[in-house]
Amino acid sequence: MEVVVCIPLVLESHDAFRDQVLSVARDRFLFAGQILMSIVNSAAVKCEIHEADPDMALAFELGAQQAISENDLAAIAGHRSVMYLITDRTGLTELYQLHTFIDVTLECGGLGVKFENSGVAHSLSSWQQKKFCENNLDLLQSHVMLTGDEDNFYSTGMHIFGLPDAAVPASIENRAAARLLTEFNHYRIFEAAQVKDGQTFSLAADAPRFRLHLKEDEINAGQECFVNPYGRFLLEPL
Fold first, then answer.
1. What is the pLDDT of residue 120?
2. Looking at residues 47-75, what average pLDDT do you find?
3. How far is CA 66 from the centre of its chain?
4. Torsion-angle region of residue 192: left (phi > 0), alpha (psi -120 to 50) or beta?
């Protein structure tokens, strides 16, 4: 299980990024080989720098669900290399630590943030405006994608938090399904709720109830970063 973050760069090489870290953040971070490390607490992530990707702007446009400006897309399209931050640590505390590595990469020439485990993308300005410690709902929605097919409405990316994803039948109206999945995922992350296979869940005492069935993530099977190794809860209406 790896969390992978894609950050297009204005820089063109590994050496250029190293020099930028030395210039901008030498008192906070070290970059050597393929490791970016925090001097403060010795936490680290693996780094891979790749050549520019001609489809990057399109990936950001789709991942931001069109909530990204033409100027931001043009800047991303002009990137010169791509940084991938990679960690095998999942969970809420670990995610906040990962944010520090994202932020310093943006300081050193990053143009945006895309989570490869969900496809969710953010422009540089959008990411920098977020106050994740003040808004748990924004934290969830900034990392987890909601989408659907003919059979299910479902989330992708909950393995970033070290948790199974969730799905509801497509027969449930889209807005109701989105609210249900959002509240269910939010409850598990921020209430540290230990939900189990066979239990029931509802949004309120008088709201419809759903039976939880924990299964393998068949929806994203074979899709590299998207597949959730922790599985997926199917919320079946009772």
1. 98
2. 95
3. 17
4. left
pLDDT band, residue 191 (cuts 50/70/90):
confident
Tokens, residue 121: 């993308």
Cα separation, 223 vs 225, whole angstroms = 6
Give the span between the Cα atoms of 16 and 19, in whole angstroms. 5
Amino acid code (one letter) for 169: P
Three-class secondary structure of residue 136 per DSSP? helix
| Token pair 């969390």: residue | 3
Do 148 and 165 meet the contact criterion of CB atoms below 8 Å apart?
A: no
| E strand or H helix that includes residue 56 | helix 56-63
Is pLDDT of 132 > 90?
no
pLDDT band at residue 214 under the 50/70/90 scheme: very high
**Starting from the edge strand earliest in sequence, which strands make up the sheet with 121-123, in order?**
29-32, 35-38, 44-51, 81-87, 3-9, 112-115, 121-123
Residues in a beta bridge with 48: 84
Strand partners, 113: 122
Q: Is the pLDDT of residue 194 over 90?
A: no
Are 165 and 145 a contacting pair, CB within 8 Å? no
b/e per residue 5-15 (b: at least 16 CB within 10 A) = bbbbbebeebe
The arithmetic mean of pLDDT across residues 121-140, rounded, is 90
